[in-house]
Amino acid sequence: MKSEPNVFSIDDLQQCPRKTDPWNGVRNYQARNFMKDDMALGDGVLFYHSNCSPPGIAGYAEVAREAYPDASQFDKVSDYFDPKATKEKPRWFNVDIKFVRKTALLSLQDLREHPQLESMKVLQKGSRLSITPVTSQEWRYIQTLI
Fold first, then answer.
1. Is it the case that residue 125 has pLDDT exceeding 90?
2. Please, is 66 exposed, middle or buried when counting C-beta atoms within 10 Å of its C-beta (0-12, 13-18, 19+)?
3. CB 61 within 8 A of CB 13
4. How crowded is residue 121: how many other Cβ atoms within 10 Å of its Cβ?
5. Nearest CA to 145 among 121, 110, 95?
6. Is residue 43 within 8 Å of residue 63, measured between CB atoms?
């Protein structure tokens, strides 16, 4: 899960009450579907800092609540308001994530140096999604790096 550290960082998550926060504001259908269809309670999350220098994995989190409607889609003053969304037919969902631990930054460049990770979605050219899946093999390999 990618976030710009000046918007919401691993430190911000650590400071949240109960160290848990909704991952809201996602307005890409593919990223939404990853949360809604593929993420389960207790799943591990690589918390990735993007649009910074250097970008990379800054820590671990876990799914603390499975997908539910993102309240910001109904809030008319929110940047994430969606006039087409209704309570009966929400368009956007989020999960809650819980802080697990910070790590030494594993930069994008560091990730690219490992052939075992060359298929990792976040490393693909043009990958701009805020949420991308990680295979169990990639997850295990990253554990050896951090």
1. no
2. middle
3. yes
4. 14
5. 110
6. yes
Cβ pair 63, 20 in contact under 8 A: no
Chain-wide mean pLDDT for the chain? 95
pLDDT above 90 (res 127): no
Question: 3-state DSSP: the chain helix, strand, coil percent, rounded to 5?
Answer: 30, 25, 40
pLDDT digits (tens, 9 = 90+) for 1-35: 999 999 999 999 999 999 999 999 999 999 999 99
User: Would you say the pTM of this structure is higher than 0.90?
Assistant: yes
Q: What is the DSSP letter of 74?
A: G
Three-state SS for 26? Answer: coil
What is the residue-wise DSSP string for 106-125?
Answer: EEHHHHHT-GGGTT-GGGST
Question: Rounded to 5 degrees, what are φ and ψ at 71?
Answer: -65, -25
Domains of the chain: 2-145 (3.10.590.10)
What's the count of helices (H) and strands (E) in the chain, helices before strands?
Answer: 4, 5
Element (H, E) at 67: strand 56-69
